[in-house]
Structure formats: C-alpha cells, structure tokens
Amino acid sequence: MSAVIPVALLALSALFALLFAHRTRRDRRRFGNAVLLGLALGCLLLAGALGGFGPLPDEAHTAVLAVLPLLVGASAVATAVLLVANGITMLRREGGGPANLLSLVAGLAAFGVLGLLAAAVSVDSRPLRAAAAAVLLVAGYFSFLLLCFVGYAALYARLTVRREVDFVVVLGAGLVDGHRVPPLLAARLERGLGVQLAQARWGRVPPLVLSGGKGTDESRSEAAAMADFLTGRGVAPELLRREDRSTSTEENLKFSDALMAAERPGYRCLIVTSSFHVLRSAILARRAGVRGQVLGAPTAAYYWPSAMLREFVAVLLCYPVATIGPCVLLALLGAVGGWHG
C-alpha cells in the first residue's frame, strides 16, 4: 500500500498537469487553470515526500514525516509576521482605508488560527478540538487557493503575447486630489505607451483606449486625466480613445469592448493594468467577451501583498458556489473529526 500511494499521486499530478496545459492553451484567463496547476504541483510534492521518486530509507522517511509539520508551522508563523508587518506599512503609507487593512487583518487571523490550534493541542476539550479542526481545514482550503492564485498570477503575467492588435486598453485608477494621475496609474500609462510603440513593428500603431469614469471624489474623469498625461508625453490625440463612463473594472471592460467593437468589429486588443490586478482583469475580460489578454505594469513592493489579497477576495466572490460549498463541507468534516478524534 505504501508504494501504491506515491504512484497514484504521481499519476494524479500528471493528469492535473495535462488538464492545465489543455485548458491554458484554450484560454489562459481562467481561475480554474490556477487550481489545476496547484493540484499538479501539490500532488507532485506529496508524492516526492512519500518516496515517489525512489524508495526512502526508513530513517529518511521518518525524518521527512517529522520535518514537514515543522516546516508548515514555521511557514505559517513567518507568513503571519510578514502580513502584520506589511499591514503596518500600509497604514503608515496609504492610510487606514478598509482595503489597506487586508494584510494586517489576514496576519492577525493567521495568528488566531495558530493560537486556536495550540490551545486544542494543550487542552483536553472536545468542542475546542472540533472548532480547531474545522477552522484548520477551512484555513487550509483558502491558503491553497491563495497560493494557486498568486502562483498562476505570476505565471500569467510572464506569458508573452506576440501578435498584432487593434487597440491597447489602459484601465484607470483613482486620481490624486481628484484631478491628477497618481504614480500607480502613471505606471500603467507608461506600460501602455510602451506596448503601443512595440506594436509599431507590425506596421501600424494601435490607438490607446483610456478607460475610467469620474468618481464621486474626482473633478474630472480618469480618462481625461490620462489623456492629458499622454499628450504631455507627445502622444498624438488621434491615437487616443476615451472611455469615460466606467466606475469599476467590470464596466471598464464592458464599455471598452463596446467602443472597440463599434470602431473595429472582431478587434483584438491588449489590456494594461497594474501587476497585482492582471489575473482578475483577465478573468473579468473573458466573462465580458473582451478579445484580448492582460499585461501588468510595475507596482511598489510594499503595496503588492495587500493588493493581491484584495484581488484574491474579489475573485472568490466571482465563484460563490465553489467558495462557500467546500468551506461548509470542510468545516463539517473537521468538526466531526475533531469531536471524535
């Protein structure tokens, strides 16, 4: 039996890898691709730990089984510390808005889970063991999905797009003082401009679609501010298209799609946004029927963890059944197992 399990895990890893390759070839813009990649790598690592790449001596097998929990625990503590530290940095640099608290809240939640597990181990209490097991399984599920999301987002951002396009869409972001382009949006515009110039090798320069409406705290639309920024860089106005009605990423893509389809039916485009926003934008672009892939612009390192958590939560909300259903099942299994364990 001990030899069968690693072989089965290797077979599962190969199956998940093949499904990942097939689905990614058909459409890169799916969160399911991230899950398949995570399952393939997870099964491969577990198979290796259990001797799937060759029989392990008894001493080595025992050492692996002893070290793995320690590594997982140390990684969890280190992650919690880093999240709390990043949360404090976000508060200092970006203020105390709800979105800026995500990394701090996540770090404190991780410490809470670790504390609950420690209490369940040290105190002989069935209810405590049941609660700890339920929380552990749910936290493990979300941690797995988060690792899948972050890993595939990094991979997606590195996939090259080598073809001629008809438009380059730049997604807007909030303006400073209600009228000025902030550094985050400036990085998107610079990347969009670079993509536009790189497309010249195909023999034509595609227009830039500047997508962003006017927020309640803004004196003009993001599209107008973006256009002024680019004309100040010497971009000809006739190479700019303004989409100035949107107030969310979904509307950015929906309204930009309508604008591009009206000018050029059957268009192809590239979409530019910030690096942390790439995968969710790609998922929403697929859902909106936008014919194009997404590219990322550089983001400040301190801003990235909190922003990625925000994107992860937003993606999970796109899949309520796949998010809530497994959580309920895992919580029930954990509670029953912890109670009778």
Q: How would you describe this structure to a colleague?
A:
Helices cover 65% and strands 7% of the residues. Strands 3-2-1-4-5 form a five-stranded parallel beta sheet. Helix 1 (4-26) packs antiparallel against helix 2, helix 2 (31-49) packs across helix 5 (126-158) and helix 4 packs antiparallel against helix 5. It has 341 residues and is of the alpha/beta class. The protein has helices spanning 4-26, 31-49, 58-94, 102-122, 126-158, 183-198, 222-232, 249-263, 278-288, 304-317, 320-340, and strands at 167-171, 208-211, 240-243, 269-274, 292-297.
SSE map:
Elements: H1 4-26, H2 31-49, H3 58-94, H4 102-122, H5 126-158, E1 167-171, H6 183-198, E2 208-211, H7 222-232, E3 240-243, H8 249-263, E4 269-274, H9 278-288, E5 292-297, H10 304-317, H11 320-340
Parallel strand pairs: 1-2, 1-4, 2-3, 4-5
Helix pairs in contact: 1-2, 2-5, 3-4, 4-5, 5-11, 8-9
Kindly summarize this structure in a few lines.
The protein is α/β, with parallel strands linked by helices and 341 residues long. It has helices spanning 4-26, 31-49, 58-94, 102-122, 126-158, 183-198, 222-232, 249-263, 278-288, 304-317, 320-340; strands spanning 167-171, 208-211, 240-243, 269-274, 292-297. Helix 8 (249-263) packs across helix 9.
